[in-house]
Amino acid sequence: MLIGIVLTVMLVGLPLLGIWLKNMPVSQFMEFPPLTQHVEHASFSWTAFVGLTIFALITLGPLVKANFSNKPKDVTENTRCHFPWWGWLGILLGGIVWILAWTRFEWFAFFQLHTFTPLWIAYIVVVNALTLRRSGKCMLIDRPKHFGLLFVTSATFWWFFEYLNRFVQNWYYTELESISRLEYFVLATFSFSTVLPAVLGTYDLLKTFSRPSTGLDNFIHVKIARPKLVAWIVLGIAGFGLAGLGVWPDTLFGLLWVSPLLIIISVQTLLGRKHRLRSLAHGDWRNVWLVALAALICGFFWEMWNWHSFSQWIYTVPYVSRFKIFEMPLLGFLGYLPFGLECLVVADWITGDREKTEKLKG
User: Fold this and answer.
1) Do the Cβ atoms of 305 and 122 come closer than 8 Å?
2) What is the pLDDT of residue 113?
3) What does pTM read for this prediction?
């Protein structure tokens, strides 16, 4: 409860505090649906692009090297079972909705705005079916209460990001002029409810493979001598960054993705609770890497299915806006990596779920 209060106050209040102190008009950030583009972003910068690329290579290179320089363990097959019938229904549904999302049949015009949610429901069902096929269990069947709660949590979770995006305006949606505020809220809420189930379902599927986590169970040990002091410092930096989102959107836009994570982990540390990053002290990077990879995989499908859909989101990212894959700038995909971990810690915090097979050390 305390984490929820702190997170809500900081995420909602600090960006507003920043623009209020700067004497900026609050109304332009509260438009609903968001139609007006009031942030003029910086143009492409080779310096920023090369610098961020080098940072990504330095950060991710050792992880990838450790992963591929070790031989994966054999995957046991004694827990596998048949691909379930409902998985085939998911494939059928996904195929049909994909075709309808990318075409413009006149008879389907009324429903053209509503293809996102069923497409991702199909993805979630298929991912769970594949997990069941490979491991003999899946979230949909073995943890239905947790599975359902993820949908409810996910809607609120992503609305927070939509709110923060008002201050940096890194993406906007098309075809909103034709629908009412209520229609937009309902349509968006259903769409946003699929984010956590998709990422965490993909995460569960990746855990059934040995290769993605090979060599990461005893990687770099990240030990912090005074964790509570560091937590206070990180909390202060994240808070200052949130307050500055609307004031310096081109400089601080990246904090939109990492600040909620930093706040949750910092508060958990200050309260003496276990969190997902504690395993790094023992060199265990497996869960961190797998959930980051899961979000990246989902990100690929999000961007691909968005590409030819009738209602789309369009990116306006400063400094690194070239070399797009679908609509997303190449380096923009890096944002999915911390976002994956954010999905996991939020799911842990909301549902209180701890898988018995994953003991958090520390």
Assistant:
1) no
2) 87
3) 0.91
